[in-house]
Amino acid sequence: MKKKVLSVLLAASMISALLAGCGSTPAQTDAPAAEEAAPAEEEAAPAEAASAEEAPAAEGEAAAAGEGTFALVTKSAGNPYNEREAAGFEEAMKAMGYSDSQIIIRHPESATADAQITTINELISQNVSAIAIAANDMDALQPVCEQAASQGIKIISLDSTVNAASRMTHVNQAGTQIIGQTLMDAVKDLAGGEGQWAILSATSQASNQNAWIAAMKEVMEGEDYAGLELVEVAYGDDEYQKSVDQTQALLTNYPDLKVICAPTTVGIMAAAGVLQDKNSEVKLTGLGLPSEMADYIGTDNVCPYMYLWNPIDVGRLGAYTSVALVNGDITGAAGETFTAGEMGGYEIVEASDGGTEIIVGPPFAFTPENIDEWKSVY
Ligand code: RAM
Q: What is the distance in A from the centroid of ligand 1 to the CA of 63?
């Protein structure tokens, strides 16, 4: 049941027929900002838009299970995005026939490198086969990742990368450049082409948010964005109350602020509540979960539109990648291909940091037209 897809997706599909999308991505709409976003060829992966009724998929298709224990370490506990990522990981492991005792999911107490180092050390002593980690810090995890690797544990990152030396590959939810371009176009559109805007990010060390912010800044250097002034990058640390406080501070400190862009599901939801309570004219966009943002999406609402990908698919692809590495089907080198169950075929490509990555698909626009369809999915 395919639906209308954005032109960027169609272009991307033509670029590489090898890569296949998954069956649980949202139908696309004509969000004004996304139409202008041109994907970088090497980053864009095609996705087949499907209806919400088809997702989530891939249950009860257990193949013969292999040996080993597979761990997922998310950024932190208490974040619904991370829970959905974990649900996808677990579901795919079970679809491959692995049992509960072979699947370990860890949500560290806080979104810090220290909390993840403690968790990885525990997993090393449990002698797991593979660890997939959404990193809270790109470089600080290197020693513990190297320690794990020296004991034969396969290390990948997903969602938020560890540095190239620390991983075999990275499951990237969408190309960094296309996310930066898409968000900048949304900011420009919602600001009416010019004026002050601010970023409300997660933690200051988060590799994924920092990469997206760097990509946005690079896009903003273009002539077309010369009228926009980025006044501050604030950090809510992916904690609800801190994100609320940071939003309030932005509104107080910048009375002429036109747009807040929050490239974090925790931040965007916190900011939405503040803007709505204050009846603010500041517009909001960024990366949000449809389930958390449905009440705020609307042409005359605080968030006219926003973007995301399917966090369940990020977890699923993390599981398939971990298993492919442990089974020796791939080594994490660019050019290798493998099949991720029902998600289809994926190719490992060069990443901009010198390592490799696997891109799940492009970001999707959530608008007043499709938000109701997606709010119960993730
Ligand atoms: C938050 C986390 C996560 C990020 C999303 C968009 O939930 O920071 O890592 O991918 O937002």
A: 31
